[in-house]
Design goal:
The complex is a heterodimer of chains A (about 375) and B (about 625). Chain A is an all-alpha fold and about 375 residues long. Chain A contains 13 helices and 2 strands; from the N terminus they run H-H-H-E-E-H-H-H-H-H-H-H-H-H-H. Chain B is about 40% helix and about 20% strand. The chains are: A mainly alpha (about 375), B alpha+beta (about 625).
Chain lengths: ~375, ~625
Amino acid sequence: MRWRLPVWLSLPRLDPVLLVTLLLVMALGLAALYSAGGQDAGLVQRQGVRLAVGLVALAVLSQVPAHVLRIWTPWLYLFGLALVAATWFVGVGRGASRWLDLGMVTFQPSEIMKLAVPMTVAWYLHPRILPPDWKDSAIAVAILAIPAALIARQPDLGTALLVAVSGCFTLFLAGIRWRMIVAAGIAMAGAAPVLWMFLADYQRARVMTFIDPEADPLGAGWNIIQSKIAVGSGGLTGKGWLHGTQSNLEFIPERHTDFILAVLAEEFGLLGVGLLLGLYLLLIGRGLYIASVARDTFSRLLAGSLAMTLFVYVLVNGGMVSGLLPVVGVPLPLVSYGGTSAVTLLAGFGILMSIYSHRKFIRR
Amino acid sequence: MLARSAHQPLKHEADEQRLFARRARLGFAIMALCIVALAGRYSYLQLFRHADYTTRSESNRVHVQPVAPNRGLIYDRRGRLIAENRPAYRLEIIPEQVGDLEATFGALSDLVDLGPEDLDRWRRVRPRYRVFDRIPVKFNLGETEVARLAVSRHQLPGVVVTPYLARHYPHGALLTHVLGYVGRLDVADLERVDAANYRGTTHIGKIGIELQYETELHGTAGVERVETNARGRVLRVLERQDPIHGSDLVLSLDVAVQRAAWDTLGDRAGALVAIDPSDGSVVAMVSKPSYDGNAFVHGIGSQAYQQILAAADRPLFNRALNGGYEPGSTLKPFIGLAGLENGVIQRNKRIFSGGEFLLPGQERPFRDWKDGGHGWVDIRGALEQSVNTYFYQLALDLGIERIHAYLDQFGFGHATGIDLPGESRGLNPSPQWKQRRYGEPWYPGETVIAGIGQGFNVVTPLQLANALAALANGGARMAPRLLYARKPPGTERARRSEAPTAQQIAVRDPRNWSEIREGMRRVVSGPQGTARVIGLDARFEIAGKTGTAQVYALAEDEEYDEAEVAEHLRHHALFIAYAPAGDPRIAVAAVVDHGGAGARVAAPVARAVIDAWLAQELAQ
C-alpha cells in the first residue's frame, strides 16, 4: 500500500519509516523527561536542542554517499583514538576522565568511536574476501579492541562495551566462522577472572549488587530496588503522565538519565514500555533491511552493525532498569537525557539513510 | 560452491550478500527474542508483581508521623499560671542524613554549648528512633545559638533546629516540691506509658503533679500521614488527625499563701502544709530548701545535679510529703480527745502536775518541760500549757492499744491519699508492730512518752495537717487534694474536680471535741498559752498547738540548753494551727528543722500562712 508523506517530511534521501519512528521515540522520551526532571521545561528545552542538533547531523550525513564516508573512515578512527587518548591528559569529569572541555560544551570523544569502530572494521573488511580468515578476523578484533580498552580504562565500561560490541557485530555480519566465535567465547570466559581483577572497586560492587540487590538496600542496592518498585507499581497502564510517585518524589536515582525507563514504565505502564520496545525493534528491523539491500560490503556491514548496536543499548538499559542486568552506564537511546549519545545515534541513523538512498547508485 | 579455497581470491558479491542475509536474519531473530524476553520481564514486574510493588511504592512515600499534643497548663486556685509552655528551639539530628556523626558533633560543639553528657544522652536515646527520625540533641537553645546555627546549617546536613513548646515554671523553686517537673523522656518512662502516644513527645512528668496527672496533662498524640521524598523531606500532608491537647489543671494551691510560708521560713529548712478543712484541698505545701524545676526540664548537667544531691540540707527531699518527724506535743490534742472519748478523763477533772511523773516501781522520772510543774490543770489547761505529766498519766490510763486505735482514725501511720506520688506513711506504733519489727514486747514507759508524741511516733507534716483538718471540722477525714479543677481542651470553663470522700471519725460526744478545740484556742489566746506570742495582734482567733521533736536524746542528768547544742542537733520546732478558731477555714502544720521550741520559729510561719489565706478568703 502506498501512502504519501507530508511535504515537509519528504526531504530528499530521508527514509520516512526511520524518521517517523525516531521522532516517536524522541517524543516519548521528551514526555518522560519532562516528568522525570520535576516538570522542568528548561531541561526538556535543552534536550530538545540536542536532539535538534542530532537531527541536523542526521540530515547532513544522509546526504553523504557511503563511499565518501569510507574514504574518510581511517582518519576518523585515528582522530577519535587520539581524542580518547587526550582525555588521559586533559579530561574532565567526576571520577572518570571521559569528557573534553571545548569551552562552550563538554564533549565525550568515546562517542565518536561508537561510529568509528564499526566503520573502520567495515572499511577493513570491505576489500577482503568474506567470510574473513583468521588473520583478517584478528586484525578486525584489534581495531575494535584498542579503543575499547582505552575507553574501559577511563573508566567507562558502558561505552567500552558498546564500542566493542559494534565492532563484533560487524565481524559477525561479515560471516566470521562459528568456530572462531566459539573460540572467542572460550577465550572470553577464560579471561573473565583476569578482567575481574582489572575492574575498579565500584565496578565490582555493581556486579555484586546485581547478584544480590537486597543485601544493601540503602546503599548500592537502592537503585535497583527503587527502580523495580517504580516499574512494578506502574502496572499495565501506568500511574499516568506526571503522576509517578517514585520518580516525582525522587526515589529513583539518575531518573532523567540512565533510569528514565523506570519513570516511563511507572507512568505509562507496560503499554508504554511495550510501545517503546516495539519502536526500537522497528528501528532495528528497518536498519537490517536497509543493510540487506545495500550494494557494497562497507555499506552492508556498517548499516547492519549500526542497527544491531541499537539493540545492545536497549537490552542493556532495559535489563538494568528491570533488575535483569547489572548497573552499567548505558543510556536508553534517544530517551535518556544527555547530548552526545543522542547526536551519535542520530548521526548513525543518518548514515543508514544515506546507505539506503544511495543503494541504487553504487555499483561495483 | 560455498567452499572456497585460498586460490580464489576474488570477492563474490552474491555469496557475500547471501551470507550477510543469513546472518542478519539470525541476528534479528535473536534480537527479537531478546526484546520479547525483556518485554516479558516488564510484564512479570508490572502484571504479576504489580500488587506487591504498589504496596512498596505506597509505603515508600507515605510516612505516618506523630503530632505531639500541647501539654496542659497549670494554674493556682486564683488563676495564676504556675506551669506554662514557652516557645523555644531545640537542636535535632537526623542520623540518616548525617554523613559523619563525629564530625558533625565536632562542628556543632563550636556553635552550641554541647557537653559530653548531651552526646551520651543522644546515643542512649537513639535506639528509640528510626534512621529518618529527628533525634533531639539539645533543648532550649539560646538566641545566639539559634542565630549561629541558622548561619552554618547549610554546611551541616541532617542538623535541624525545631521550634517547640518548652515547659516553664514561673515560680521556680517555690512550687517544685508540689508541681515536680517534666524531664526528657527516657527508655524507663516508655515502659509506663503507651509508647505510641509518646512518639512525638520529648518530655514527661517525672515527679510531683506533673507525674501524678501525666495522662491528663499530656493529652493524646495526633498523627499526620505525610508524603515524603526519598530524603525524608515532607512534601505535603495527606491526612491529619489533630492531637487532643492536654487538659489544663487548676490546683488548690494559693501562690500567695505559699509565698507567705516560703518567705517566713527564710533560710531555715522546714515544711508547711495548709489544708482547707471544709474540702480537704491543699492550700499551701512548702518544703525548704527547694530547687528550681526548670533546671531539670532541659536536662540538668550531671555536675549541677551532683551539687544538689550532695547539699547537706537535701533540697531534693520533700519534707512536707516524706519528712518523718516526731510529732512531739502536737499529738497532745489527739491524745486528749482519745482520753475524753474513751472516758478515761473527764472534761473538768483536774490533775496535779508536780514536774515529774514516775511509773510505779521505776526510779527514772518523766519530766514536765517546766521545772516544778504546772500545778492543777484540766484538759484545757494541759493543752494550753502543754503539760507533759497530764498526758503521761492519760496515756498510761488509755494504754497503747487504745492510743494506736484512736490515732489510726486520724490517719496516722497511713498514707493520706493525697494526689501526689510517693508520700510516706509515718508510724503509729503498736505492740504488734514492735513485736514484728524488733521482736520485743511493748514497755509501759513507751506508752508514757507516746502520750506526748515521743518515742516511736513518726508523722509527716502532711499527715499532721490532715489530721488537724479532721479535728477542726468535727471528724471528717479526707484525702487531701491538690487538684482543684480541670479544664479539658475545648471547654470554656474549668470544672471542679470531684470532692474527696470523707471518712467520718466516730464522735461520742461533740462536747469532747469542743473541749479540745477550746484548749487549742487557749494555746494562742490563753494567758499561759505556749504560743501566745502569735496571738497578740492576730485579726482572727487561732487555735494551735506547739510541739518539739527531739533530735537527740538527753541523758538523765543533762539539761537541754539550746544555745549550747550544735544547730544540726537542735530539736525540730513544730506548730499546728487552724483558724478562725470558731469557724476553721484553714488547718496548718509547720515544721522548722532544728528550730528549737515550736512557738518561736514554727508558729510565726503558720501565722503568716493563716493571715495570707484568711485575708483573701474573707475579702471575697
